[in-house]
User: Which sequence fits this backbone?
């Protein structure tokens, strides 16, 4: 039986833990908590000219959150806030049974069987939401923003 919550690809992504850790001096950070399951993720970002130059994550979470954070940690460098928003929307579409996000984020296809497990969608989206929260905090702290 292929359990969509614990597919080998999800476990591999979580074990890979791309981007795991903390930045010494991030431009912005955000920590989000999922009270339904206890997942917690902190995302640190460095930005230059509105684009992510480094992104790390510290997760105390299930393999779904860990795997999602690893995908983001591997490929978020170079993206801006609008592109992170578009990625989060594309992942939501995938979780609802739609298309896979385009490369380099096509690894999110590992979550394509989670449609019926709606409470677990939050787990997959938590690292993306933490990234957006960090970018929003940064925008709010900039003069004239």
Assistant:
């Amino acid at each position: 039986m292929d359990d969509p919550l614990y597919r080998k690809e999800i476990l591999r992504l979580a074990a890979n833990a791309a981007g795991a850790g903390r930045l010494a001096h991030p431009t912005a950070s955000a920590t989000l908590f999922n009270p339904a399951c206890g997942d917690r993720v902190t995302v640190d970002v460095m930005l230059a000219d509105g684009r992510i130059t480094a992104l790390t994550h510290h997760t105390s979470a299930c393999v779904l959150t860990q795997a999602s954070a690893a995908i983001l940690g591997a490929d978020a460098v170079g993206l801006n806030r609008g592109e992170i928003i578009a990625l989060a929307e594309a992942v939501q579409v995938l979780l609802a049974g739609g298309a896979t996000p385009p490369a380099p984020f096509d690894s999110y296809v590992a979550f394509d069987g989670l449609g019926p497990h709606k409470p677990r969608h939050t787990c997959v989206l938590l690292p993306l939401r933490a990234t957006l929260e960090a970018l929003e905090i940064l925008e709010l702290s900039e003069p004239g923003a």
About this structure: The radius of gyration is 14 Å. The mean pLDDT is 93.
